[in-house]
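Supplementary material to the annual report.
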Amino acid sequence: MHKLSRRDFLKYSSLSAFGAMVATSPWSTLAQDAVTLRLTAWGNPTEVQAREATLALYDEMQDAIDIEFIHTPGSEYMTKLQTQLAGGDYPDVMFLGNGAIEPFVARGQLLALDDYLARDNFDTSDISQQNLKLYNVDGVQYGFPVDAPNQQLFYNKTLFDAAGIDTPAADWEDESWNWDAFLEKAIALTDHEAGIWGWQVKTGFRAWWIWVTANGGTFFNDEGTECVLNSPAAVEALQFLADLIHVHEVAPPLDVASEMGSGELFQSGVTAMETWWPAIGRMRTNIADKFEWNVAPHPAGAAGKSTSGGGTGHTVSAFTQQPDESWEFLKFLISTPCVSLWTDIMGIVPPLTSVAESDVFLKPGEPPADILVFTKGNDYLRPDPRHPQFTQAQQIAQSQLERLWVGGVTAQEVCDDAVAEINRLL
Amino acid sequence: MTAWSLARKANRKRTDAIQKFVIYLILIAGAVIVLFPFLWTFSTSLKTPDQVYQIPPQMIPDPADPLNYARVLVDRPFARWMLNSLFVVVVSTVGTLLSCSLAAFAFSRLRWPLRDKLFLVLLATMMLPTQVTLIPTFILFKELGWINTYFPITLPAWFARNAFYVFLLRQFFMTIPLDLDDAARMDGASHLQVYWRIILPMSKPALGVAALMFAQFKWREFLAPLIYLNRTDSLTAAVGLRTFMDETHGTDWELMMAANIMFMLPVVIVFFFTQRYMIQGVVITGVKG
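Predicted assembly:
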């Protein structure tokens, strides 16, 4: 057998490496007639599927614009996008969370759409106004929403029926569904021996923000110069939630919940009520026929009812070389055919009233029976506070509140500490 | 042999046996602790979605669902991602070995002005975190038109970009007596011939260590492939694994774990065949891979 000499090894390995590089080189890219726009987005496999389906639809509808879809997995999206933007490799259309809009606008990275809206006399009345506002900074529109998610109270109807208790009212205007009524039901539903809890206190910002705003609390003062999370209204709301764990014992302590897999408690039938973003598709699949479930607004506090949320949207990069084509594509993304297809595949709450009122979203005969709670809830949406320091301030609040959820301190003490720390930051 | 010495011998044997038993017990306990996460990963990779969250947890899933592995390959282009990773690892490891050993040769066997000072400059580049040079290098590769190609993640390896491996090989080359070079030079060998015929064959252990360490690093490399590769089917497996995580809709842990096992497998197989080099690597470099 011929023995491979080092010289041969060197020769062949260099040749193969060079050959492989040429094969993967950019020179193989073919010139195209149509304008190619680059759309950058993150997304799980279902989102990628929805993305590909809507892009195929766009491809069928016109020939002038081709879309190159750049998919980046999950939380690494911002790292990649910021490197692209800083390095001058600008995508044309960007998928962004609503919380990113203000910082992107501040850095001059988004194209203002007002001129295009006026030029085309574009009608935005079908878009949920609360959600449209999330992409508006100082009166200038920078994008359109992809969805209109708000967090609602999911409940296990089978457990309510077994305990002989009335289910929460789906009507947003029914003020009898208040904190007292909620506590009463949570106590009646809890059965420690059977391992059933009336509620789970979720510790995410948007889960407790609903209760704080329902009670009239806010995070910053109007001028944005001070954190006011230690105001009586906010403190009362947070203490109410902590008491559900430590005083009334209707919600599992955090360590117990985490051991049981806190994200799965409702789907496993362990908790009777829980705050959830509109995970309708996921619940339909995971719960299947294990039990009956439905949704309702959270109970009214001193200031009425509230919901939190935000969602994601599409924006155009300020550095795009094809602003006109990007605008055309953006119009398609907020059109009824595109939103219908997206809603059908993703099982999300659509940002268009026309789609929200159609069977694509309502899916008659499938749970939840009161699905309109989500769309009607848009009017009660209290988005995340808009403030340049909000991300850090929220992190401080979250870490302080952990002490409250664990127990042994009062909401007032925790909020005072959080406010002192946040105000130093401001 | 007296009865006393026999008894003493038996006694020593027993003490040895007890000592061995205790040592093995500690080692087994250590092995269990170290292996547990792997066992857990493997166990989860065989579970159904319901079993993943079952309380108390099942260590041996019943029924086991080996189809998770097939799902990983069908749901995502995972096989393609593994091949992409393999390509990147092979091309850049060959490049690193050749270029770093050449540079190390120049720094250790040849005499030229400012050699040691330049070596210090080279070492200083090790202090720069990747994040610092991320954007300048991104701009460079963009200007070259290399975004969305494998060039940015393979080609730099052909230019001795990794100072650490130059350092590693230089230190090893310096242990080879210079007399060998002199003898070869007397026989008419050129510098390159000395490098290729004398130094490289004598440095197989160091080259093996460098190859293993670099290949392992490249297999797991995340940031550069994430930044430079745009098409889903051109991703490497390390980046592809991230697509199994989903904060909003819930991660399919059983698929994630099955993909992890497949991702780990090549490294584990290589480890079994090259244990000796890996351990030598720890000895030579004082660092773990």
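DSSP finds 14 helices and no strands in chain B.
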